[in-house]
Amino acid sequence: MATSRDIQEVVSKLSSDKSKTRE
């Protein structure tokens, strides 16, 4: 089961990936 911590890590990773793509 994915814990809230795991979800936060995935979200933060996706967010960072989006930021890199924008740049």
Secondary-structure map:
Layout: H1 4-22
Region (Disordered): 1-23
Q: Quick check: average pLDDT?
A: 88
Order of helices and strands: H
Percentage beta strand: under 5%
Biggest β-sheet: count, sense, barrel?
A: none
Number of strands: 0
Gross geometry:
rod-shaped
CA-CA gap between termini: 34 Å
Helical residues, percent: over 70%
The unreliable regions are none
Radius of gyration: 10 Å
Helical region count? 1
Structural class: mainly alpha
What does this protein look like?
- This protein has 23 residues and is mainly alpha-helical.
- It is 83% helix and 0% strand.
- It is built from one helix and no strands.
- The longest helix is centred in the middle third of the chain and has 19 residues.
Features:
23 residues; mainly alpha
In brief, what are we looking at here?
The chain is mainly alpha-helical.
